[in-house]
Amino acid sequence: xTELQYLGxxxxxxxxxxxxxxxxxxxxxxxxxxxxxYAELLSGSAFTAPRAENRRTWMYRxxxxxxCTGTAHQALPHPTWKTGAAAGxxxxxxxxxxxxxxxxxxxxxxxxxxxxxxxxxxxADAQTGIAAHLVLANCSMQRVLINADGEMLIVPQQGxxxxxxxxxxxxxxxxxxxxxxxxxxxxxALDGPTRAYVCENYGAPFRLPELxxxxxxxxxxxxxxxxxxxxxxxxLQPTTVVRKFGGQLWQARADASPFNVVAxxxxxxxxxxxxxxxxxxxxxxxxxPDPSIFTVLTSPSDTPxxxxxxxxxxxxxxxxxxDSFRPPWYHRNIMSEFMGLVHGQYDAKPEGFKPGGMSxxxxxxxxGPDAEAFDKASNAQLAPHKxxxxxxxxxxxxxxxxxxxxALNGGALDPRYxxxxxxxxxxxxx
Length: 430
Hints:
Elements: E1 4-6, E2 14-17, E3 38-43, E4 56-61, H1 65-68, E5 74-75, E6 96-98, E7 115-120, E8 130-137, E9 144-147, E10 151-158, E11 160-165, E12 168-173, E13 176-180, E14 186-190, E15 194-201, E16 226-228, E17 239-245, E18 248-254, E19 261-266, E20 271-274, E21 295-300, E22 307-314, E23 317-319, E24 336-344, E25 358-361, H2 371-379, E26 385-387, E27 390-397, E28 402-403, H3 405-409
Parallel strand pairs: 9-17
Antiparallel strand pairs: 1-16, 2-19, 3-4, 4-19, 5-18, 6-25, 7-8, 7-28, 8-15, 10-13, 10-15, 11-12, 11-14, 13-20, 17-18, 21-22, 22-27, 23-26, 24-25, 24-27
């Protein structure tokens, strides 16, 4: 099991060293770093950002980044990785659902090659919006990826990953998530055919939402997030580095692996979170609470309370409300909702929405429980009920999503999705 340490809180200063005595005391960049190392700063925010918002990490490494990320980059075509709203196609205001796509077996696909963009919005250069991707991979990366456009929130659905970063190693499987900061080098090793959802966030970095009247405890607790400890590769062989930069992929040959950091300290770190630690809060009287009560992480926008992106989960939980319709109600939302199902069954769509599938309900597109869920919920005995063996999630954004050509024409779009509401009849009695 990979050794990890707990964040204890977002923005907390952390440190780790694989070789004792490698961290400088009192100086971030001394004239001569211990053990012949180089000092290098990775800044995830502007230097003059408020102290509470400032994200950066000092790394003490065997070779500086200029030796480990390559020069003379060449364009690397990628037909299915798209960036920003301009890369999308005309998208109708329909509710949409995609069947689970199988992991191909006829060709080798690593994390990069297996990435397929489903929906996009915003603009990476303007640092707004997100993209939602589906990864279908069957082999480990032998190269390195650095995303300069945004941070990457990875939600495994099938298979497990070992993710090597400049700051250490993280192991993640279905039911867990991992976040890779913008600009940090990483490599993904697989233990078999793997399917995962990815949110590429161009906007403000993800953080914990404010709790407001909930108080000091609940939802995702900062103490449950884990980051790696320092680890470095002993043999620094040349490697191929792929950069995501300005919506394009570029590759170069680097003289040495970037995974050579012997010690580090700071608060810009990759982290892992296990969703089983999420403290669900719901109603104990009546009405179904808004889905915002399930927010794990949020990327705020310049409009307070209206997120660039919220990462929301629907984990196992008790339903105990009295005289209430317990599944999500029918609604239209100013926010746009992209959903995926990791495992189990989603209570508002007992049929048709399967693990590995996806759905999209754009801004002001009506949606809600299918006819089966409505009938069952309307006639159920309202005893306490435990929703178990389930995990769905949502990337919710203030910006309208545009589908990619792959999403609309890749063969997985369900053309009969709207039929799930067809049996809903007019029962009005004057």
